[in-house]
Design a protein that fits this description.
Two copies of one chain form a homodimer. By secondary structure, the first copy, chain A, is of the alpha+beta class. The first copy, chain A, is 34% helix and 25% strand. Chain B binds a DNA duplex (25 and 25 nucleotides) through α2 and α4.
DNA sequence: TTACATGCAAAGCATTTGCAGATAA
DNA sequence: TTATCTGCAAATGCTTTGCATGTAA
């Protein structure tokens, strides 16, 4: 392990998240810090509550499912993560904060980010009484073989 | 009521749907015909299973929820309707068969179609081994007042 | 000290399923 | 006649909630 491994980087995704948590007034509890580490120290991720629970278990820690759900919602409302809706039966959260779209491989259930610059999208202007919250673009693809079987 | 009301139009959305049902091999049962009428004789609609059940009740008919769910799935796989995923907790089905995007007013839970021509979207070409299934574009807006209350 | 957080188990809710009875062809 | 469909009620699975206990400030 090089000495650089432990250099404190105030601008790491994790430290930025931690500061936003503190600034927002919610407490940076142990559970929240552990989950923030998982979410923000592994690059851009797409996770479900279940994924996180499994990961917590693998590290021999213990955080309840209720807390994981609460935390995901809090992080979402703080703007740390983004909820993406690709299918009805499971909530997916995306840790990529840069503006981007999604590529969803339906038969694999896998999702990938598409940088905004790779898709050109022009939408009409929004009336003054309304605010644009977000634009979700999900490009849904299937592998050919899956498509063939009707 | 003018006599034209009962003129048979083989190209009405309902009759087209009915033919697709027959052609596909599934039986045009009473329930399926009633639901097809509700879906296709009222212009472009966005409905949930619950909406349809309520409508059925209002007409003093009775179709079970299980049948409504089954029918919505069958109609979707026949390509008669399209499932749109705006939020995790309820499936919405859209009867507009023309290519289009969606405008979702988050604080009202209302959804509207946006004709494709009003949005310019350029996506990169898809590798030959994959098929593009669909591109969902959901423009999410909020009314200003809702936005203010943090 | 006390307001806020966590964990558990129970509740909630949309959707699916198993199966007996009904129905279209 | 028989393969298919419907309706009921029970099951499922994700998510939320109520509440007692724990913890950060």
């Amino acid at each position: 392990m090089s000495s650089e491994t432990n250099v404190f980087d105030p601008f790491s995704a994790y430290n930025i998240a931690l500061r936003k948590i503190e600034d927002s007034g919610i407490r940076p509890t142990k559970q929240r810090r552990v989950l923030a580490k998982m979410l923000f120290e592994k690059g851009d991720r797409h996770v479900t509550a279940e994924n996180l629970l499994d990961e917590v278990k693998k590290e021999n820690r213990k955080i309840s499912m209720a807390t994981i759900y609460n935390t995901l919602k809090q992080f979402t409302s703080l703007g740390l993560i983004r909820e993406i809706v690709v299918d009805q039966n499971k909530s997916l959260y995306c840790t990529n904060n840069k503006s981007h779209y999604h590529l969803y491989i339906e038969d694999e259930g896998k999702i990938h980010d598409i940088p905004t610059k790779n898709i050109n999208l022009d939408i009409p202007s929004i009336p003054a009484c309304l605010t644009l919250h977000n634009i979700d673009v999900i490009v849904r693809i299937r592998s050919l073989k899956d498509n063939k079987k009707k």
